[in-house]
Amino acid sequence: MNELYQVQPSEFVRARNALVARLRKAGRTAEAADVARLRRPTPVVWALNRVAHEQPAEVKHLIEATDALKLAQLGRRKDAEAVTTRQRNALGNLVARAAAALQSAGLGTAPATLRRASTTLLGAAADPEARALLRQGRLSEELSAPGFEVFGGMTLRQRPSAPAGHQRRRPGPSHHAAPTGSPAQARARAATEQRAESLGEKRAVERAAKVSQRRLEALEREAQRRRRRVEQLEKLAGMLRKRAQAADERLAQERRQAEEVERNAARAREQLTHTGANRGR
Protein backbone atom coordinates (compact mmCIF):
# COMPACT_ATOMS: atom_id res chain seq x y z
CA MET A 1 0.00 0.00 0.00
CA ASN A 2 2.98 2.31 0.40
CA GLU A 3 3.11 2.88 -3.34
CA LEU A 4 -0.21 4.73 -3.14
CA TYR A 5 1.41 7.50 -1.12
CA GLN A 6 3.88 8.09 -3.97
CA VAL A 7 1.23 8.40 -6.69
CA GLN A 8 0.41 11.93 -7.78
CA PRO A 9 -3.02 13.18 -6.65
CA SER A 10 -4.40 13.12 -10.20
CA GLU A 11 -3.57 9.39 -10.48
CA PHE A 12 -4.49 8.39 -6.93
CA VAL A 13 -8.07 7.19 -7.49
CA ARG A 14 -7.10 5.02 -10.46
CA ALA A 15 -4.14 3.49 -8.57
CA ARG A 16 -6.24 2.96 -5.42
CA ASN A 17 -9.03 1.19 -7.31
CA ALA A 18 -6.51 -1.01 -9.11
CA LEU A 19 -4.92 -1.99 -5.79
CA VAL A 20 -8.33 -2.73 -4.28
CA ALA A 21 -9.12 -5.02 -7.20
CA ARG A 22 -5.81 -6.88 -6.79
CA LEU A 23 -6.35 -7.34 -3.05
CA ARG A 24 -9.87 -8.64 -3.53
CA LYS A 25 -8.69 -11.04 -6.21
CA ALA A 26 -6.07 -12.33 -3.76
CA GLY A 27 -8.75 -12.88 -1.13
CA ARG A 28 -7.50 -10.08 1.13
CA THR A 29 -10.89 -8.47 1.56
CA ALA A 30 -10.16 -6.71 4.85
CA GLU A 31 -7.11 -4.95 3.41
CA ALA A 32 -9.07 -4.12 0.28
CA ALA A 33 -11.75 -2.45 2.41
CA ASP A 34 -9.11 -0.40 4.25
CA VAL A 35 -7.54 0.75 0.99
CA ALA A 36 -10.94 1.59 -0.53
CA ARG A 37 -11.53 4.06 2.32
CA LEU A 38 -8.36 6.04 1.58
CA ARG A 39 -9.03 9.53 0.27
CA ARG A 40 -7.08 11.27 -2.43
CA PRO A 41 -4.32 13.32 -0.76
CA THR A 42 -4.03 17.04 -1.26
CA PRO A 43 -0.99 18.24 -3.25
CA VAL A 44 0.59 19.37 0.04
CA VAL A 45 0.19 15.93 1.67
CA TRP A 46 1.45 14.17 -1.47
CA ALA A 47 4.54 16.39 -1.64
CA LEU A 48 5.36 15.90 2.06
CA ASN A 49 4.99 12.12 1.79
CA ARG A 50 7.30 12.10 -1.21
CA VAL A 51 9.89 14.23 0.59
CA ALA A 52 9.65 11.98 3.65
CA HIS A 53 10.47 8.95 1.49
CA GLU A 54 13.34 10.72 -0.24
CA GLN A 55 14.78 12.62 2.75
CA PRO A 56 14.23 10.59 5.95
CA ALA A 57 17.24 12.23 7.60
CA GLU A 58 15.73 15.70 7.14
CA VAL A 59 12.48 14.51 8.74
CA LYS A 60 14.46 13.07 11.66
CA HIS A 61 16.25 16.40 12.13
CA LEU A 62 12.94 18.27 12.29
CA ILE A 63 11.46 15.87 14.85
CA GLU A 64 14.57 15.97 17.02
CA ALA A 65 14.72 19.77 16.84
CA THR A 66 11.03 19.98 17.77
CA ASP A 67 11.57 17.78 20.83
CA ALA A 68 14.59 19.85 21.85
CA LEU A 69 12.56 23.04 21.47
CA LYS A 70 9.83 21.63 23.73
CA LEU A 71 12.40 20.98 26.44
CA ALA A 72 13.90 24.44 26.01
CA GLN A 73 10.51 26.11 26.34
CA LEU A 74 9.86 24.08 29.49
CA GLY A 75 13.13 25.26 30.98
CA ARG A 76 14.89 21.91 30.68
CA ARG A 77 17.43 23.23 28.19
CA LYS A 78 19.36 26.47 28.13
CA ASP A 79 19.96 26.68 24.35
CA ALA A 80 16.50 27.82 23.27
CA GLU A 81 17.88 30.12 20.57
CA ALA A 82 20.07 27.41 19.08
CA VAL A 83 17.35 24.75 18.97
CA THR A 84 14.90 27.29 17.52
CA THR A 85 17.37 27.89 14.70
CA ARG A 86 17.79 24.15 14.24
CA GLN A 87 14.06 23.63 13.93
CA ARG A 88 13.65 26.60 11.60
CA ASN A 89 16.41 25.35 9.30
CA ALA A 90 15.06 21.78 9.25
CA LEU A 91 11.56 23.08 8.53
CA GLY A 92 12.79 25.39 5.79
CA ASN A 93 14.73 22.60 4.08
CA LEU A 94 11.71 20.29 4.04
CA VAL A 95 9.35 22.99 2.78
CA ALA A 96 11.80 23.88 0.02
CA ARG A 97 12.00 20.24 -1.05
CA ALA A 98 8.21 19.97 -0.98
CA ALA A 99 8.00 23.07 -3.19
CA ALA A 100 10.42 21.49 -5.65
CA ALA A 101 8.33 18.29 -5.70
CA LEU A 102 5.15 20.29 -6.34
CA GLN A 103 6.82 22.24 -9.11
CA SER A 104 8.21 19.11 -10.77
CA ALA A 105 4.68 17.68 -10.86
CA GLY A 106 3.22 20.85 -12.33
CA LEU A 107 1.36 21.69 -9.13
CA GLY A 108 1.04 25.08 -7.48
CA THR A 109 3.63 26.53 -5.10
CA ALA A 110 1.74 29.61 -3.95
CA PRO A 111 2.76 31.09 -0.57
CA ALA A 112 -0.48 29.82 0.97
CA THR A 113 0.31 26.28 -0.21
CA LEU A 114 3.80 26.42 1.30
CA ARG A 115 2.39 27.78 4.56
CA ARG A 116 0.07 24.77 4.74
CA ALA A 117 3.06 22.50 4.14
CA SER A 118 4.98 24.23 6.93
CA THR A 119 2.01 24.02 9.32
CA THR A 120 1.47 20.32 8.56
CA LEU A 121 5.15 19.55 9.14
CA LEU A 122 5.13 21.35 12.49
CA GLY A 123 1.93 19.61 13.55
CA ALA A 124 3.23 16.18 12.52
CA ALA A 125 6.61 16.68 14.20
CA ALA A 126 4.94 17.59 17.49
CA ASP A 127 2.37 14.78 17.57
CA PRO A 128 3.58 11.23 18.44
CA GLU A 129 1.12 9.47 16.15
CA ALA A 130 1.41 11.90 13.25
CA ARG A 131 5.22 11.91 13.38
CA ALA A 132 5.21 8.14 12.89
CA LEU A 133 3.13 8.59 9.74
CA LEU A 134 5.44 11.39 8.61
CA ARG A 135 8.51 9.19 9.06
CA GLN A 136 6.83 6.51 6.92
CA GLY A 137 5.66 9.03 4.32
CA ARG A 138 2.04 8.02 4.97
CA LEU A 139 0.29 11.22 5.99
CA SER A 140 -3.34 11.23 4.87
CA GLU A 141 -4.39 14.78 5.73
CA GLU A 142 -3.06 18.23 6.42
CA LEU A 143 -2.54 19.19 10.07
CA SER A 144 -2.78 22.37 12.10
CA ALA A 145 0.15 24.01 13.83
CA PRO A 146 0.80 22.86 17.41
CA GLY A 147 0.08 25.08 20.38
CA PHE A 148 0.87 24.71 24.08
CA GLU A 149 -1.01 21.41 24.11
CA VAL A 150 1.98 19.78 22.42
CA PHE A 151 3.63 19.64 25.85
CA GLY A 152 1.13 17.08 27.07
CA GLY A 153 2.81 14.71 29.49
CA MET A 154 5.50 17.23 30.39
CA THR A 155 5.58 19.29 33.57
CA LEU A 156 7.42 22.47 34.24
CA ARG A 157 10.54 22.25 36.36
CA GLN A 158 9.72 22.97 40.01
CA ARG A 159 11.92 25.11 42.22
CA PRO A 160 13.47 23.29 45.22
CA SER A 161 11.58 23.63 48.49
CA ALA A 162 12.94 26.06 51.06
CA PRO A 163 14.71 24.50 54.08
CA ALA A 164 12.68 24.10 57.25
CA GLY A 165 12.53 27.27 59.24
CA HIS A 166 13.59 29.37 56.34
CA GLN A 167 11.10 31.84 54.96
CA ARG A 168 11.45 32.46 51.25
CA ARG A 169 11.49 36.13 50.38
CA ARG A 170 8.73 37.06 48.05
CA PRO A 171 9.77 39.12 45.10
CA GLY A 172 8.48 42.64 45.03
CA PRO A 173 6.15 43.89 42.35
CA SER A 174 7.70 44.50 38.94
CA HIS A 175 6.57 46.97 36.36
CA HIS A 176 8.52 45.29 33.55
CA ALA A 177 7.20 41.74 33.53
CA ALA A 178 3.88 40.13 34.23
CA PRO A 179 3.63 37.46 36.96
CA THR A 180 4.29 33.88 35.88
CA GLY A 181 1.19 32.31 34.43
CA SER A 182 -0.65 35.61 34.07
CA PRO A 183 -2.84 36.28 31.02
CA ALA A 184 -0.39 38.98 29.93
CA GLN A 185 2.50 36.53 29.94
CA ALA A 186 0.44 33.95 28.10
CA ARG A 187 -0.40 36.54 25.46
CA ALA A 188 3.25 37.51 25.22
CA ARG A 189 4.31 33.89 24.77
CA ALA A 190 1.62 33.38 22.14
CA ALA A 191 2.72 36.52 20.30
CA THR A 192 6.34 35.39 20.42
CA GLU A 193 5.44 31.97 19.06
CA GLN A 194 3.30 33.51 16.33
CA ARG A 195 6.14 35.83 15.29
CA ALA A 196 8.58 32.90 15.26
CA GLU A 197 6.17 30.81 13.23
CA SER A 198 5.54 33.64 10.77
CA LEU A 199 9.27 34.21 10.43
CA GLY A 200 9.84 30.49 9.89
CA GLU A 201 7.14 30.36 7.23
CA LYS A 202 8.51 33.46 5.52
CA ARG A 203 12.00 31.99 5.43
CA ALA A 204 10.60 28.68 4.19
CA VAL A 205 8.84 30.48 1.35
CA GLU A 206 12.05 32.37 0.54
CA ARG A 207 14.01 29.11 0.53
CA ALA A 208 11.43 27.50 -1.73
CA ALA A 209 11.55 30.48 -4.08
CA LYS A 210 15.34 30.25 -4.25
CA VAL A 211 15.17 26.51 -4.97
CA SER A 212 12.59 27.15 -7.69
CA GLN A 213 14.72 29.95 -9.17
CA ARG A 214 17.83 27.75 -9.22
CA ARG A 215 15.86 24.95 -10.86
CA LEU A 216 14.47 27.36 -13.46
CA GLU A 217 17.96 28.66 -14.25
CA ALA A 218 19.28 25.11 -14.55
CA LEU A 219 16.43 24.16 -16.91
CA GLU A 220 17.02 27.27 -19.01
CA ARG A 221 20.73 26.45 -19.29
CA GLU A 222 19.88 22.88 -20.26
CA ALA A 223 17.36 24.12 -22.85
CA GLN A 224 19.94 26.50 -24.31
CA ARG A 225 22.53 23.73 -24.50
CA ARG A 226 20.09 21.45 -26.26
CA ARG A 227 19.09 24.20 -28.69
CA ARG A 228 22.75 24.66 -29.64
CA ARG A 229 23.06 20.92 -30.10
CA VAL A 230 20.01 20.87 -32.36
CA GLU A 231 21.45 23.71 -34.46
CA GLN A 232 24.73 21.82 -34.82
CA LEU A 233 22.91 18.66 -35.86
CA GLU A 234 20.79 20.59 -38.34
CA LYS A 235 23.94 22.03 -39.93
CA LEU A 236 25.51 18.58 -40.06
CA ALA A 237 22.34 17.13 -41.58
CA GLY A 238 22.37 19.89 -44.22
CA MET A 239 25.98 19.12 -45.10
CA LEU A 240 25.20 15.41 -45.33
CA ARG A 241 22.19 16.09 -47.56
CA LYS A 242 24.36 18.18 -49.89
CA ARG A 243 27.00 15.47 -50.00
CA ALA A 244 24.35 12.84 -50.67
CA GLN A 245 22.91 14.97 -53.49
CA ALA A 246 26.38 15.45 -55.01
CA ALA A 247 27.03 11.71 -54.71
CA ASP A 248 23.71 10.96 -56.46
CA GLU A 249 24.59 13.33 -59.28
CA ARG A 250 28.07 11.81 -59.64
CA LEU A 251 26.55 8.32 -59.62
CA ALA A 252 24.09 9.30 -62.36
CA GLN A 253 26.90 10.80 -64.42
CA GLU A 254 29.07 7.70 -64.02
CA ARG A 255 26.11 5.54 -64.99
CA ARG A 256 25.52 7.60 -68.16
CA GLN A 257 29.18 7.41 -69.08
CA ALA A 258 29.26 3.66 -68.51
CA GLU A 259 26.20 3.20 -70.70
CA GLU A 260 27.81 5.34 -73.43
CA VAL A 261 30.98 3.27 -73.29
CA GLU A 262 28.94 0.07 -73.49
CA ARG A 263 27.11 1.39 -76.59
CA ASN A 264 30.42 2.34 -78.25
CA ALA A 265 31.80 -1.11 -77.46
CA ALA A 266 28.72 -2.73 -78.99
CA ARG A 267 29.07 -0.66 -82.18
CA ALA A 268 32.79 -1.49 -82.40
CA ARG A 269 31.97 -5.17 -81.94
CA GLU A 270 29.34 -4.97 -84.68
CA GLN A 271 31.72 -3.22 -87.10
CA LEU A 272 34.42 -5.77 -86.43
CA THR A 273 32.02 -8.61 -87.13
CA HIS A 274 30.87 -6.95 -90.38
CA THR A 275 34.49 -6.41 -91.54
CA GLY A 276 35.40 -10.03 -90.94
CA ALA A 277 32.41 -11.22 -92.92
CA ASN A 278 33.39 -9.09 -95.94
CA ARG A 279 36.89 -10.49 -95.94
CA GLY A 280 35.56 -14.01 -96.07
CA ARG A 281 33.89 -13.29 -99.38
For the biggest sheet, the summary is: none
Overall average residue pLDDT: 78
Number of strands: 0
The helix content, as a percent range, equals over 70%
Assign an overall shape: elongated
Order of helices and strands: HHHHHHHH
Oligomer state equals single chain
Secondary structure class reads mainly alpha
Rounded radius of gyration (Å): 39 Å
Residue ranges: pLDDT <50 for 5 or more in a row? 148-182
State the helix count.
Answer: 8
Classify the beta-strand content into a percent band: under 5%
Q: What is the rounded distance between the termini?
A: 106 Å
Structural features, described:
It is a single chain. The protein has about 280 residues and is mainly alpha-helical. Among the domains are: about 1-40, no CATH class; about 40-145 and about 195-225, no CATH class. The chain has eight helices and no strands. Helix 6 packs across helix 7. The chain starts with 8 loop residues before the first helix and ends with a helix. Mean pLDDT is about 80; it is low at about 150-180.
SSE layout and pairings?
Elements: H1 9-25, H2 29-36, H3 43-54, H4 56-73, H5 80-104, H6 111-126, H7 128-136, H8 183-280
Summarize the structure.
By secondary structure, this protein is mainly α.
List keywords for this structure.
8 helices, 72% helix, mainly alpha, 281 residues
